[in-house]
Amino acid sequence: MDDNLILAVEGLKKSFGKFEALKDVNLTLHPGEVLGFIGPNGAGKSTTIRVILGLIKASGGSAKVFGQDAWHDSVAIHRDLAYVPGDVYLWPNLTGGQTIDLLLHMSGQQHTPVVDQLIDAFKLDTSKKNRTYSKGNRQKVALIAAFSTDVSLYIFDEPTSGLDPLNELIFQQRVKQLKDAGKSVLLSSHILSEVEKMCDTISIIREGKVIETGSLESMQHLTRNAVTVKTVKTMADLQQLAGVYQLQFKNDQQTAAEFSVDSDQIGTVMSTLAQKQILQIKTTPPTLEDLFLRYYHSDDTQKAGE
């Protein structure tokens, strides 16, 4: 195992009674890397994070943070870690400002001008009591405290739930600043566009197992490019080509079409199109959402066939 890894999770298992919440989870996070951890609700994202944080004990496998055991060395690990859950509970009688200062104090940090900049950026009224805050404002308190903390690892579990689009953008900008500063970030999210914009590596979890890990670029071979094209000659014979799906002609002459194509068949398809005298063409690489839906759609199709 690489000693420089910030996070190393191998073969992680967690059972609650007879229910296997985690069956085989493998994650690695390097210094200065943003790892996107995605999957539907109930797939095991939050359970994995709770094991990493040392809040629950694994049933099997290992979870190491900074080379230390997540369960046995959790106190030492937490000194260099900031965490924001998806639903933040705060002391009801403290104000937002008092809460931020208390969280900083508990982390051995000071209230600096950076804290005030974050409060201003997120437009949080720190004079109000926590009990009056909406879910979004409670998230802001936790995010401001986390971003104000100078640590090596930041763990965000659905951190932008309850935030409006402007605050989501501020969150994304702040994560980029952490990455630029060489910090490591584990981001669990179901907002695929958020993960796509920010993450270097993506791990997809399904039913307690990590089923795919890699950069979005490396995963794109698993899904299809969208093509919109206009040609001089008819494209009627495209229907016979391997790797072409969802072909729709936009005119009777069949010289305008939209279709998707497997990445490994693009060369063949382009050669065929070139013979038709291309007038206009646009290809769109697959998105994370395409990839994600393909995994879950193929799983549902399998189940339907069983």
From TrEMBL:
<dbReference type="InterPro" id="IPR017871">
    <property type="entry name" value="ABC_transporter-like_CS"/>
</dbReference>
<keyword id="KW-0813">Transport</keyword>
<keyword id="KW-0547">Nucleotide-binding</keyword>
<feature type="domain" description="ABC transporter">
    <location>
        <begin position="7"/>
        <end position="232"/>
    </location>
</feature>
<dbReference type="InterPro" id="IPR027417">
    <property type="entry name" value="P-loop_NTPase"/>
</dbReference>
<protein>
    <submittedName>
        <fullName>ABC transporter ATP-binding protein</fullName>
    </submittedName>
</protein>
<dbReference type="InterPro" id="IPR003593">
    <property type="entry name" value="AAA+_ATPase"/>
</dbReference>
<dbReference type="GO" id="GO:0005524">
    <property type="term" value="F:ATP binding"/>
</dbReference>
<keyword id="KW-0067">ATP-binding</keyword>
<dbReference type="InterPro" id="IPR051782">
    <property type="entry name" value="ABC_Transporter_VariousFunc"/>
</dbReference>
<dbReference type="Pfam" id="PF00005">
    <property type="entry name" value="ABC_tran"/>
</dbReference>
<dbReference type="InterPro" id="IPR003439">
    <property type="entry name" value="ABC_transporter-like_ATP-bd"/>
</dbReference>
